[in-house]
């Protein structure tokens, strides 16, 4: 069959249109400024031991993952143990603090991601009992997270090889999962080996923070970075020696500036490495009224203005004020208003 001349003339344009669709995502993690920025060039606030809730003495957070994400947390760090014939989220020992099964936790994450299609979230799994990666893959698959998980195409990526947030959202790959041991790209390609892709500073810090590389399997100059910014004190609970958050120090630990503050450690990392850190892990993120999110906003060059986040339990005045670290929405407990984030620091 012969096509009309005009149809033949249009074919190249039709082909071009099909081959290069317009980018759909216009707001990424709450900000249009982040859509064209690589995942590796963004600072995210993370919840250290996201599952470990107060009032347990072994707790690290006051609010569960749903509220954490609603308030702007974009990395969820957890400790996985084998217990009750399943993967449980426990602090040091399941007899000390058992935060429930990984499956239930990840089911809540899937619900939140489905309700917030413009957000990219990172999951960091600490595999305390050296379980095979296939067990974790099975849990992610059981709750449907495999369908929204980022597959890098190879076991590790350099900083320059990460996609932009806009590309990740357009492709529907909105969950990035790292695991510290036993990750196997050939077996479960969407669970990435942490230390082939990322380095960390020291954890269980009891005095002052620094930006020295503490753990990695690769070249830290080409990797993502995680800054452990939670001040601990040592104690014994039920005969088990653990570290627990230094709560009296939290207002300064989570502060924008000053000695041993989150802002000070972040700026030390910028000075030493020539780039902003990617993940800032904190305890009790709401202490400081949003200060941790202000630090990330400044590092990201995103305008910061106060929004409403959950308040410190037991304080007067209902909700506290703050904003989200990557420009995402800040929502009241009763449901939401969006805010923009401010401050400006070139990356």
Automatic annotation (TrEMBL):
Any Pfam family the entry gives: PI-PLC_X
Spans annotated as Disordered: 318-347
Superkingdom of the source species: Eukaryota
Residues spanning the signal sequence: 1-19
An example Gene Ontology molecular-function term: phosphoric diester hydrolase activity
SUPFAM superfamilies: PLC-like phosphodiesterases
Signal in keyword set: yes
Keyword entries, A-Z: Signal
Biased composition (Gly residues): 318-328
One record GO biological process: lipid metabolic process
Name this polypeptide is given: PLC-like phosphodiesterase
Organism: Dacryopinax primogenitus (strain DJM 731)
Phylogenetic classification of the source organism: Eukaryota, Fungi, Dikarya, Basidiomycota, Agaricomycotina
């Amino acid at each position: 069959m012969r096509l009309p001349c005009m149809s033949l003339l249009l074919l190249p344009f039709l082909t071009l249109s099909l081959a290069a669709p317009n980018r759909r995502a216009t707001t990424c993690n709450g900000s249009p400024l982040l859509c064209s920025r690589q995942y590796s060039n963004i600072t995210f606030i993370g919840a250290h031991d996201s599952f470990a809730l107060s009032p347990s003495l072994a707790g690290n957070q006051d609010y569960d993952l749903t509220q954490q994400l609603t308030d702007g947390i974009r990395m969820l760090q957890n400790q996985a143990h084998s217990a009750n014939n399943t993967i449980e989220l426990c602090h040091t020992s399941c007899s000390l603090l058992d935060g429930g099964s990984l499956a239930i936790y990840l089911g809540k994450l899937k619900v939140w991601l489905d309700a917030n299609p413009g957000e990219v979230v990172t999951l960091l799994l600490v595999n305390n009992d050296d379980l095979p990666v296939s067990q974790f893959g099975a849990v992610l698959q059981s709750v449907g997270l495999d369908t929204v998980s980022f597959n890098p195409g190879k076991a590790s990526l350099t900083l320059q090889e990460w996609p932009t947030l806009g590309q990740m959202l357009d492709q529907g790959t909105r969950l990035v999962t790292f695991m510290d041991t036993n990750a196997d790209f050939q077996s479960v390609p969407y669970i990435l080996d942490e230390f082939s892709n990322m380095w960390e500073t020291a954890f269980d810090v009891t005095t002052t923070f620094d930006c020295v590389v503490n753990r990695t399997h690769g070249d830290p100059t080409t990797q993502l970075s995680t800054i452990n910014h939670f001040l601990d004190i040592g104690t014994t609970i039920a005969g088990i020696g653990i570290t627990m958050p230094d709560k009296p120090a939290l207002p300064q630990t989570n502060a924008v500036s000053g000695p041993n503050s989150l802002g000070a450690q972040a700026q030390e990392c910028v000075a030493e490495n020539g780039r902003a850190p990617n993940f800032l892990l904190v305890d009790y993120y709401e202490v400081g009224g949003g200060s941790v999110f202000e630090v990330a906003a400044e590092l990201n060059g995103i305008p910061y203005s106060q929004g409403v986040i959950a308040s410190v339990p037991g304080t007067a005045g209902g909700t506290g004020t703050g904003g989200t670290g990557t420009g995402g929405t800040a929502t009241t407990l009763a449901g939401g208003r969006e805010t923009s984030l401010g401050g400006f620091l070139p990356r």
